[in-house]
Amino acid sequence: MHHPSAAGSVLLAAVLALSVTCPAEAGAKEPGAKETAKKAWCAPEVNELSDHVCWADGGVPADGRRTLVVYMHGAYATNPGFAWVQQRAMALHAKRLGFTVLLPTSPLVKNAYVWPTSEAAQKEQEAGLLAGIAKARADVAKKVGHGFDETFVVGFSSGAYYASSLAVRGGLDVDGFVVLAGGSSWARSPVEAGRRAPVFVGVSGADPQTADHSRAYAGTLAQLAWPYRVEERKAGHEVDWSLLTHGIAWLRSRRDKPSALANASARH
């Protein structure tokens, strides 16, 4: 199974650079300022559900369907406020696309929050991790006061490698997956055809760290006759919002036409 250590490093460096150029975000203080309280884990634009779990309600689209998106983030450093960049972005696009977003946090490993992508890490961490996500899904439904018509997983970078593994192994009961800038082509025991949630693979074609991994993952899905779509854009190591938009729309369209079996690919 591919491990996204290099890709994670690119993400960490990029977001850390953003923090350095934005002193207020990084928690910098003016000379002589008093020490302030520790920065909260959840950004002000999202809500805290429980420890290291956030959420935001973006409403519903015109057709009234209630969608929950479980977002599996890219690698987080432990710097206060580091996670806010991705949290804020997902809250923004939840409003734009009309879904509720659940923002769990991966386990802390050494000096970063990363998802379990190796067999050893999954054996050690996965049961507790998935139990926590299940509880959070129930808790957020109580918060918004209703259930959901569909639940999708969106994974980016470290989250994409883990989400891609979950999809093939049937590790999470959801209606579809969007994996962006990452993907693991390794699959020991893929689930039977009747339980195969569709997967949208977004390839960041200008990212030398993950592009080939994403393409290989799409190739694995093709070999398995899995319901999938792959799109590629000349994006770097980032959440490409066009790919996210296309991924959510494609998964929703498959829910409208559950009998559709054709796979498709596109390049932009």
Structural features, described:
The chain is built from seven helices and twelve strands. With 268 residues, the chain is of the alpha/beta class. The chain has a single domain, classed as Rossmann fold, CATH 3.40.50.1820. Strands 1-2-5-3-8-9-10-11-12 form a nine-stranded mixed sheet, sandwiched between helices. The protein is globular and about 50 Å long. Mean pLDDT is 84; it is low at 1-36 and 258-268.
Q: What is the CATH H-level superfamily?
A: Alpha/Beta hydrolase fold, catalytic domain
| Spatial separation of the terminal alpha carbons | 28 Å
Write out the strand line-up for the largest beta sheet, numbering strands in chain order: 1-2-5-3-8-9-10-11-12
Structural class comes to: alpha/beta
The level 1 CATH classification is Alpha Beta
Would you identify the CATH architecture? Answer: 3-Layer(aba) Sandwich
Radius of gyration: 18 Å
Gross morphology is globular
Tally of discrete structural domains: 1
Strand content: 15-25%
Average pLDDT number? 84
Number of helices: 7
Reported by name, the CATH topology is: Rossmann fold
Helix-strand pattern, N to C? HHEEEEHEEEHEHEEHEHE
